[in-house]
């Protein structure tokens, strides 16, 4: 059994026209699958009705993990594994010597937050090493903006896209084969 999916692409030359087009399409009840832009467009996520990203919450957790690792590392190396009397200041407790480790704790907090947040971002957006690009039109990496709409009434969507100032409309039919 095979099913046919239709994708409609509307290409814009200006980000303001794109934003107006997204708003008008959403007002008419048309579901937009994806928007491809060469740079971030302010207000596009709100116009598309996307929920707020939780990436900052992940960053906080990853930073806390980095701080914990830094505290454990400095305690283990300076108090447990190889305690040393440096400058006539014995290492009785980690708390007494902690001010000397603030730079290490800061660096590991930033390192963990930045790297793990980047990996989380790529994983959530399904960007894996060796994966082929999923961009349907390479002009969107330069100066064009593209709206992708699936399985809608082509004539109705075309009228709305033309009214919003679209430069080009493309229709692609994709076939998915499923074996039962």
From TrEMBL:
Q: Which InterPro entries match?
A: ActD
Q: Name one Pfam family in it.
A: ActD
Q: Which organism is it from?
A: Apibacter muscae
Q: What name does this protein carry?
A: DUF3341 domain-containing protein
> Any idea which UniProt keywords this protein has?
Membrane, Transmembrane, Transmembrane helix
Q: Transmembrane residues, as ranges?
A: 58-78, 98-124
Query: Would the keyword Transmembrane helix be found if you checked this record's keyword annotation?
Result: yes
* Keyword Membrane appears in the UniProt entry: yes
What PANTHER family does the database record attribute to this sequence? Answer: LIPOPROTEIN-RELATED, QUINOL:CYTOCHROME C OXIDOREDUCTASE MEMBRANE PROTEIN
């Amino acid at each position: 059994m095979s099913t046919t999916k239709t994708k409609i692409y509307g290409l814009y030359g200006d980000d303001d026209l794109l934003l107006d087009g997204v708003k008008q399409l959403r007002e008419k009840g048309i579901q937009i699958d994806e928007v491809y832009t060469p740079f971030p467009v302010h207000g596009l996520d709100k116009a598309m009705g996307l929920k707020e990203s939780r990436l900052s919450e992940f960053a906080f957790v990853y930073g806390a993990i980095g701080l914990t690792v830094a505290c454990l590392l400095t305690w283990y190396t300076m108090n447990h594994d190889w305690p040393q009397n440096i400058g006539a200041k014995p290492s009785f407790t980690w708390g007494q010597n902690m001010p000397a480790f603030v730079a290490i704790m800061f660096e590991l907090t930033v390192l963990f937050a930045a790297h793990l947040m980047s990996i989380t971002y790529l994983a959530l957006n399904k960007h894996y090493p060796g994966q082929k690009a999923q961009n349907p039109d390479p002009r969107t990496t330069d100066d064009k903006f593209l709206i992708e709409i699936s399985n809608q009434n082509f004539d109705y969507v075309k009228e709305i896209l033309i009214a919003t100032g679209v430069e080009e409309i493309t229709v692609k039919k994709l076939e998915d084969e499923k074996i039962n």
